[in-house]
TrEMBL record:
Protein name per Swiss-Prot or TrEMBL: Uncharacterized protein LOC107763799 isoform X2
CDD domains, A to Z: YmaE-like_MBL-fold
Species: Nicotiana tabacum
Domain Metallo-beta-lactamase: 151-301
InterPro entries referenced in this protein's UniProt entry, alphabetically: Metallo-B-lactamas, RibonucZ/Hydroxyglut_hydro
Length: 328
């Protein structure tokens, strides 16, 4: 793998341990990373939560509070008592489409309709979903979030040099066929160990080379084809720069941050309760983002963010850093 041809600064490794569950932090839901697998699901857990408004769509008691439906269909889903719930039923075709896309993407199949959705097959064809065809054509949200990755989002970058999957969606034949229609994937860039999900099935099906930092490799990822060493930067050609937990797509100024830095419902977050190395060092790495030229943040967990320009991006990051420094 070639060294990056331009200056690209991303932090050194920071390890996130999903088995650590310290006190609640009001920057990201507590339940998201509690466990990638759960015990027996009972019929009562699949029952409609009373916090849902009456109507067709509802959320059951198996919700892990991953926030997926709340940012995919914010007109209809909200957070009530540490889980998602429907606060307004879809009132138009656009809202229904987004609600069904959220239903399909829910990692725990916790969203349902009282009546079988007659249009569900058509909605399945909409994946992967273009994020913004005007400002970054060829960049897609894969949907089909996986419980194995605690509900993290994954993305597809379509490019002439070979498509790139960023982190792993839940494997389904329907999504696999849709991705093949867009050219499949040459690489699968895995930001960190928590969000690898069905990486092996995707690699076998699409024939893509997987990329992961060597310090993130465990028993489930020993067969990864490309293991990054050191603190980078690295590149996949002139348009793609790799950081140890981030990927910068230069043509459209998009930074894929994994779980390193993202906007939650409550503001910016570095998911610090999963950092078992050094929060100050992670904050220093966030500071280095001030030097990067990007306008979009597409995270694994958290909400996508669009900045109007570099000044807004830097002002927002500086304000976050100043607040964290004052609290430390």
């Amino acid at each position: 793998m070639a060294a990056a041809s331009t200056s690209f600064h991303i932090c050194r490794r920071f390890h996130y341990n999903s088995n650590l569950l310290p006190r609640r932090e009001n920057s990201f839901p507590e339940r998201v990373k509690a466990s990638p697998t759960r015990s027996i699901i009972t019929a009562s857990m699949r029952a409609r939560r009373p916090q849902n408004v009456p109507g067709d769509f509802f959320v059951d008691h198996t919700c892990i509070d991953c926030d997926t439906c709340r940012w995919m269909a914010s007109e209809n889903f909200t957070r009530v008592d540490d889980m998602s719930a429907v606060f307004k039923q879809p009132s138009c075709e656009e809202e229904r489409l987004r609600a069904l896309q959220a239903l399909i993407s829910c990692p725990t199949n916790s969203i349902h309709t009282e009546k079988p959705a007659h249009d569900i097959l058509e909605v399945q064809k909409t994946f992967p979903i273009p994020i913004d065809e005007h400002t970054m054509p060829g960049v897609y949200h894969c949907g089909y979030h996986s419980e194995k990755s605690f509900g993290a989002a994954s993305y597809l970058i379509v490019r002439d040099e070979g498509n790139i999957l960023v982190d792993s969606p839940r494997y389904t034949e329907r999504l696999a066929n849709n991705l093949k229609m867009l050219g499949g994937a040459r690489y699968m860039f895995l930001t960190h160990r928590d969000d690898v999900a069905d990486h092996e099935r995707w690699s076998n099906h699409l024939g893509c080379e997987r990329i992961l930092h060597s310090l993130e490799v465990d028993h489930s990822t020993t067969a990864i084809e490309m293991k990054l060493e050191g603190s980078g930067p690295w590149s996949l050609g002139d348009d793609i720069a790799l950081g140890s937990v981030c990927l910068l797509y230069k043509p459209f100024k998009v930074l894929f941050t994994g779980d390193h830095f993202a906007m939650s419902e409550f503001g910016w977050s570095i998911f610090e309760r999963y950092n078992k190395l050094s929060v100050p060092k992670q904050l220093n790495s966030v500071k280095l983002m001030l030097e990067l030229d990007f306008e979009w943040i597409l995270p694994g967990h958290g909400r996508r963010t669009k900045f109007s320009d570099a000044e807004e991006k830097n002002s927002s990051i500086r304000a976050f850093l100043e607040t964290k420094m004052q609290l430390s």
